[in-house]
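Priority: low. Protein: Xylanolytic transcriptional activator regulatory domain-containing protein. Input follows.
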Amino acid sequence: MANPEYKPFKSIHEFLTAVHIYADEAKQGITRYVEATHYCAHVRKDLRQCLIYDSHEQDAKLIGVEYMVSKEIYDSFEPEEQKLWHSHEYEVKSGMLILPKPAGYTDKEWEAAELQAMEEIIHLYGKTWHFWQVDAGHEYPLGHPVLMGSAINADQLDLNTAMAKRNKTFGVHHEEKAEARKDLQPHSIHPNDELADLPKDSPYAVQSLLLYAICLYAGSERAKAVRILARASDLAIELALNRADYASTYGMQDALVEESWRRTWWELYVVDGSFAAMQRQTTFRCNAVELTAYLPCEDNVYREGMLPPQPATLEQLDSRFFADEEQPFASACYRIEAIRIMGQVLAASNGGENCPDDIQAVDNAIAAWRLHLPFAKTGIIDRFGEVDQMILQAHAFIYTATIILHFPRSELPLTLPTAADIACAARMTQASPTSAQHATKAISASKDLSDLAGLPVDKYSPLFTCGLVFACIVQLSACSAHPHDCITQHRDRVALMTGVLKSIGRSWAIARDVILHLNKIANGVFRPHDTTGVVMCQPFMDSGVDVDSMFNNMSWLDFFPAGDMSGMDDIV
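Result:
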């Protein structure tokens, strides 16, 4: 019979004290806290596990457990799982959390060691369950386990009161600890942290989450951006922002507030559809609900506060095709319509199972959108001589939708060939007249996107990145398929679009990421001849690029770096 060695307990080597608050009560504005003495083991670099006692005395009660993980692991969790975890940011920065000094250390030595430990803990997320509510006077561990958390701001509890006993016991003061830790760089509290200081039933939360999702995407944190946007969509639909009566009911009888709620919903709708296209989804959440919210007005009208007496409806927008007289709609309305068409394209891109009539119907919708644009909206410059950002994005979405619809069905190579497969002197075999028509439309849309890139625009939305990448891939594929046709034109268009990506990359990391890969591929496709000055499409085997590792089995859509949706951020 083996002798018990208590090996798991020998791995415990960290002693922490703080207070835990009851998570569900905190969401209701009630702060009930209990002293929490942690005895922790570092299982791995990204995982710690702690036994929680109500004191450090010999007769202390074991009241719970806490697990701590790195931010990278936390970010990989599903949104519902993330809600069970809490940030340690305020706990560390406020001086609530301490490592009591053991014997054998000077104050200076231990302060340095404690500060180093806090530099690690501030970036960890904790999941804590208490089984024994000793603060309620329970003699035994009664009832269900209770989810606990940590305070996230000074409004939740009086630190002087909460820390008084602990400070006296260990001869410390939380304010001195806070001063010593003021330069620690914390992470921002994640919106899916259930104790995040964010209203849970407010359109302001939808706006905050939407902006955060866009920033995450622009910062090349695509997996997190998708999760945050999903939370924004769920909350908006739960609040019924998609319904016509929401703005009037909760607009405080203020026309500007009502317009703000309408614009919030439709901006969410546009971003949701754009993200769906980038992630190769066949549908998106905001497109699967009733759409009766009134449409937004022109941006300059909203800024000036001169709102129309009655906003337009989606039904009126749809009826414009058969109206005897041209009806004016805001540029944002055509942007919304472009995303609605994008939704049709995504639904048609479900593995090629749609019949030709279905594909033609979507293609007709794209053509009708362009043909029925008012003359004032066919260009990107408005009557004041300024770039109309809404109509610019609307055109970009339509051209991107065209590429998504036609490029996979075209004669162009869906997988850029390996060095052994490509020969510059040979043309690819034309599949069929239908396939050639798809190629023509895909190439035309990529040219239209490059024309947008050539406009004198100072600022671009990070969402424009997607369309530019798709357009570059079409141009590169066209050069690979037809190596002697208009090579200089293909090269110049790709150079223009990568130049815009470089410009966007000064602000947004997503553009910096994709341009590295596009440049590598473009260098393999285009090769200038110094002796003639003529740009030719060269065999990949002569390009100096490791084509086998780059292009083997790489789908054109998979080129765009969607990121691993389980939380990995590697680019394909």
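The longest strand covers residues 33-44. Residues 7-180 form one domain.
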